[in-house]
Amino acid sequence: MILRALPSNPRTASQLIVCLSFLLLILLSACGPSRENRIVVGSKNFTEQLVLGEIIAQQIEAKTHLPVERRFYLAGSYICHQAILGGRIDIYPEYTGTALTAILKEKPNASSEQVYQQVKDEYARRFGLTVGSAFGFNDTFAIEIRGDDARRLGLKTISQAASHTPKWRAGFGYEFMERPDGYKGLAATYGLRFAEPPRIMDLGLLARALKDKQIDVAAGNTTDGLIAALDLFVLQDDRHYFPPYEAVPVFRQEMLARHPEVKQALDELAGKISDEEMRQLNYAVDGQKRDAKEVVREFLHRKQL
């Protein structure tokens, strides 16, 4: 993981990410021999995706005995999507709201069940990809401020915070700045203005930057294990801007044709991870600095999986 802030200029940061992402794809395309009997699991570049990728990998190893290659930290959604379309990975964890807005370019205006079905149908039709059963939790975006500020100013909602943002500094991930369900729409919906252009930062740095007063508001995730640990406060999305973001596995259909047992193994995880359990898993890795493989192994054992 890159442990430094990206350039503060959104255009410069985006260009840098694109260049690095293309380099990564080139390197991935050059890797390895034929892998008909080897499953490649990918994930994005933040803690929850690392944990989910490891859950997927260990479940496949335990239930199918197929060898699994881990290709984690693949930047964001666009890179993972291109990697699976290009056959460089076979599976990765995605979120239905992200798939709907960032990949399919559709507007979020339905229930979680309708969003899931639309994503599942369109991924099969447009991309030849299979969307598996939801893991059970909803990781929507969380607009976070320090707990001290929330209590001092009596803030509970994003609408209430809007009058204070002209004095605040914001920090967001690069993907949040570019996504159709990200910064521009949020700012327009709530009339948000900030003291300076938002800082574009690695997702792993946002919570601690907020706690350390380098920024005053951040866009994190509701299942972030550091929210309670760092006394952060999640502002209510009172205008319902964000869609549901149920976590699901996405599969290459070519891989499933060879190994249908892989989907059967992951179907056993359907509905098995609650919001609170995901927060606890994230905190074990982020807050307690434990090894993700060990954390996942213990979780699957507790679930008798």
Short description:
The chain is an alpha/beta fold.
Describe the structure in your own words.
- This protein is α/β, with parallel strands linked by helices and 305 residues long.
- It folds into 2 domains: 35-138 and 244-302, D-Maltodextrin-Binding Protein, domain 2 (3-Layer(aba) Sandwich), CATH 3.40.190; 141-235, D-Maltodextrin-Binding Protein, domain 2, CATH 3.40.190.
- The chain contains 15 helices and 10 strands.
- It has helices at residues 10-29, 47-64, 77-85, 96-103, 112-127, 147-153, 158-161, 174-178, 183-190, 203-211, 226-229, 253-258, 260-267, 275-286, 292-302, and strands at residues 39-42, 68-71, 91-95, 129-131, 141-146, 170-172, 199-200, 217-221, 232-235, 247-252.
- The protein has a 5-stranded mixed beta sheet with strand order 7-6-8-5-9.
- α2 links the parallel β1 and β2 (68-71).
- α2 (47-64) crosses α13.
- The longest helix has 20 residues, at 10-29.
- It is globular, with a radius of gyration of 19 Å.
- Mean pLDDT is 89; it is low at 1-15 and 28-34.
Provide the succession of SSEs. HEHEHEHHEEHHEHHEHEHEEHHHH
Side by side, the strands of the main sheet go 7-6-8-5-9
Radius of gyration: 19 Å
What general outline do the C-alpha atoms trace?
globular
Number of domains: 2
- Secondary-structure-based class equals alpha/beta
CATH superfamily of the largest domain: Periplasmic binding protein-like II
CATH topology description of the largest domain: D-Maltodextrin-Binding Protein, domain 2
